[in-house]
């Protein structure tokens, strides 16, 4: 692929991930409109129903790719389990630590987990641009998290600190599982499985795993029209539409880049928490938002090109992207995932 085409493809992928992150950023605020519904029910309804709808829409593609998906069953299973755990940890984190902190920790630390997975399992070299962007994003999310946690302690007393710390711990679990299912979906796509089939299989199976949780905790969702409206919105907009966009993005950018771009989500969540929910954000939190926006700017700015000797003036060279690799070489090794695929 030429440098220009590769850059355009990465740009489309980045826009898809950013659009998905914008939708995801509304989930925490939307959940506050159903205060009688617990975080487990919200998470199970959002990701469970959204995942089942994805699988239903992608059923023809999943059927057409059934043999390839069976060959990659270890990856599918790992992704599905991560999909099932993620919303339970994520919404519980927001419930305990607040919308801003829960979202910031869950999404803000995901790039580190994702880069570690890609480095250890895939042997992928991380670019200087990604390193700079990730440093800005992590510093920004840390400022946002510390500012919000300090404000929570000052305003509600020491007793809330234990809940905040537990929420932060669950946020780290959410970050790890988010990175895992992003990596699993990207791995399937790089092995020539279309994004709709890959996302439908992973999220559909994950949705099935969440059905028992929904049956056990979801009674409040049908107790009132407002609760039902919140559950319907979460399943259709952030989860279904958001993850369709995310799947398209993963077809064009690595999982580490996608999880870094999704740092837009805590920014949206924090701003909505201030404007809609009424949470207060200290000055350090706003500085954190500025740093996250700078991170996104670094990741999405056009790659500078330089001409080498003998190269035509209008022939760009992409110095920031890794050279294109064959699909068979895109994911060398697999460790635990390959072990699963051999045993299942």
> In angstroms, what is the radius of gyration?
20 Å
Mean pLDDT level: 79
What form results from the Cα inertia axes?
A: globular
N/C terminus separation: 36 Å
Mind explaining what this structure looks like?
By secondary structure, this protein is mainly alpha-helical. It is about 75% helix and about 0% strand. It contains 16 helices and no strands. The chain has helices spanning about 5-25, 25-30, 40-55, 60-65, 65-70, 75-95, 100-110, 110-120, 130-155, 160-190, 195-215, 225-250, 255-260, 265-275, 285-300, 335-344. Helix 10 packs antiparallel against helix 11 and helix 10 crosses helix 13 (about 255-260). The longest helix has about 30 residues, at about 160-190.
Based on the model shown, name its key terms:
single chain; 344 residues; mainly alpha; 76% helix; globular
């Amino acid at each position: 692929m030429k440098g220009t085409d590769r850059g355009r493809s990465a740009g489309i992928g980045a826009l898809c991930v950013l659009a998905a992150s914008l939708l995801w950023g509304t989930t925490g605020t939307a959940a506050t409109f159903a205060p009688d519904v617990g975080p487990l029910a919200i998470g199970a309804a959002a990701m469970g129903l959204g995942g089942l709808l994805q699988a239903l829409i992608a059923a023809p593609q999943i059927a057409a790719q059934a043999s390839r998906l069976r060959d990659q069953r270890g990856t599918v299973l790992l992704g599905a389990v991560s999909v099932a755990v993620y919303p339970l940890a994520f919404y519980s984190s927001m419930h305990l630590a607040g919308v801003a902190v829960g979202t910031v920790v869950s999404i803000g630390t995901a790039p580190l987990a994702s880069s570690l997975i890609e480095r250890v399992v895939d042997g992928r070299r991380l670019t200087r641009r990604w390193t700079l962007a990730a440093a800005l994003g992590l510093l920004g999310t840390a400022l946002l998290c510390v500012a919000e946690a300090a404000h929570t302690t000052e305003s509600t007393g020491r007793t809330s600190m234990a809940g905040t710390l537990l929420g932060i711990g669950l946020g780290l679990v959410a970050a790890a599982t988010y990175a895992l299912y992003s990596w699993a979906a990207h791995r399937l796509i790089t092995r020539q499985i279309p994004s709709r089939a890959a996302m439908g299989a992973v999220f559909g199976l994950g949705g099935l795993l969440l059905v028992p949780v929904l049956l056990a905790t979801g009674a409040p969702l049908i107790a009132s029209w407002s609760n039902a409206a919140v559950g319907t919105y979460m399943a259709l907009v952030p989860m279904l539409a958001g993850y369709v966009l995310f799947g398209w993005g993963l077809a064009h950018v690595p999982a580490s880049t996608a999880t870094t771009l999704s740092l837009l989500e805590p920014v949206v969540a924090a701003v909505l928490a201030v404007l809609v929910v009424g949470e207060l954000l200290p000055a350090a939190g706003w500085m954190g938002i500025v740093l996250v926006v700078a991170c996104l700017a670094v990741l999405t700015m056009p790659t500078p090109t330089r001409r080498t000797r003998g190269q035509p003036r209008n022939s760009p060279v992409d110095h920031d992207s890794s050279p294109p690799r064959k699909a068979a070489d895109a994911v060398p090794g697999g460790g635990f995932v390959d072990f699963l695929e051999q045993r299942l």
